[in-house]
Write a structure and sequence with these properties.
By secondary structure, this protein is an alpha/beta fold. The protein is built from 3 helices and 10 strands.
């Protein structure tokens, strides 16, 4: 199964369209927040399921979602409630608390991937406003026996 992950789009339609072109083979899309109204644009270009959480710039929506996908427990949040700009400890402990296999988050606008004590932690970066030395990006997760994570750079 292929899962496309994007977030921190902040209402810039062209970047969402560019990301969705790169994620067209996905069977599921995860949106990590910050401009939840962008979901409408994602759903226009995608026929599958979309899971979305609200970010610090959103007023409505779920703060976090826990979802079993192909036998793996996913913990999805924006990350601002866990202080991810300063440390990933609180996010890790929450993922551990909910028995997550995968923790997906946003907020930092910096791509990130690491496996920590059996928990795969992924931030797709931002499709609009990358920070640090990163570029506009999204992620394709491939679920087989192993979890494979591919960062995809956008040219917009």
């Amino acid at each position: 199964m292929k899962i496309g992950v994007l977030g921190d789009s902040h209402g810039i339609d062209g970047n969402i369209v560019a990301a969705m072109k790169k994620l067209q083979d996905a069977e599921l899309i995860v949106f990590t927040g910050d401009h939840l109204s962008d979901i409408k644009k994602i759903e226009n270009d995608f026929d599958g399921e979309v899971i979305a959480v609200r970010g610090n710039c959103d007023r409505n929506g779920d703060i976090e979602v826990i979802k079993i996908i192909k036998g793996r427990r996913f913990f999805i949040c924006h990350g601002h409630k866990y202080g991810v700009k300063y440390s990933l400890d609180n996010l890790y402990y929450r993922a551990q608390e909910v028995n997550a296999d995968v923790a997906i988050f946003g907020h930092t606008h910096i791509p990130y991937y690491e496996e920590v004590n059996g928990i795969v932690m992924i931030n797709p970066g931002s499709v609009t406003f990358p920070r640090g030395r990163s570029k506009k990006s999204c992620v394709m997760i491939k679920l087989d026996e192993k979890i494979k994570v591919e960062f995809i750079l956008l040219s917009t």
